[in-house]
Write a structure and sequence with these properties.
This protein has three helices and four strands, in the order αααββββ. With 199 residues, it is an alpha+beta fold. It has one domain.
């Protein structure tokens, strides 16, 4: 009888050990899930912050470009319409030619913001190019007073009626691309605003 009781207690100890191992494994899985969720949450918060900064850069580009356009029309800038002030290169940037698949690849709405900026860089498109008001313009200072290269905006003008039977030179589509971050953390945001001259 004593041997039977001894075996039963050993069996109970074995079951208790299995239960303890299962509880520890469960706690380990829960702990790993909490750590993973916490790490993901901070990355998401960081991404949202960069996205907001990129949108702010695009808005800053719009504000500055709006002032520049006002100067061009009001204070001796010499503009009376938008005709001749649209971005037209590379071919197909403003409207894709359905007969030329290569031009369709450059249509500004088919390209991501990063691809558009890269295209501008590869084709030497900058403020000296007709239709580009600002290219990778820095606008924020660091605490030391130098330009913060993490934040830029690019603004260009597109003829919103190009390819149509009639074109209205009194309006334009202004495209503002804001960037925030550098390298692999580069985030972009785009604003497209239709602007018309008051008659």
């Amino acid at each position: 009888m004593q041997g039977h009781l001894f075996k039963q207690r050993q069996h109970e100890k074995g079951i208790g050990l299995i239960i303890i191992i299962m509880v520890l494994a469960f706690l380990l899985v829960v702990g790993l899930a909490v750590v993973t969720t916490t790490g993901t949450g901070s990355r998401i918060a960081g991404n949202l912050r960069w996205q907001e900064e990129a949108f702010n850069a695009a808005e800053a580009g719009f504000d500055i470009a709006w002032g520049a356009l006002d100067d061009m029309f009001s204070f001796g800038g010499g503009w009376t319409s938008f005709e001749g002030h649209y971005l037209q290169e590379p071919l197909g940037i403003d409207v894709p030619d359905i007969n030329d698949p290569n031009s369709q690849a450059f249509y500004f709405r088919r390209l991501t913001d990063a691809a558009l900026l890269y295209l501008f860089e590869q084709n030497s498109i900058d403020e000296n190019t007709n239709g580009v008001l600002f290219y990778k313009q820095l606008y924020i200072l660091t605490q030391e007073g130098s330009d913060d290269i993490r934040y830029t905006y690019t603004v260009f003008l597109i003829d919103d009626e190009v390819g149509m039977a009639t074109s209205d030179p009194s309006d334009v589509l202004m495209v503002c691309i804001g960037t925030a971050g550098v390298g692999n953390t580069l985030t972009t945001a785009r604003l497209e605003v239709l602007i018309a001259i008051e008659q």
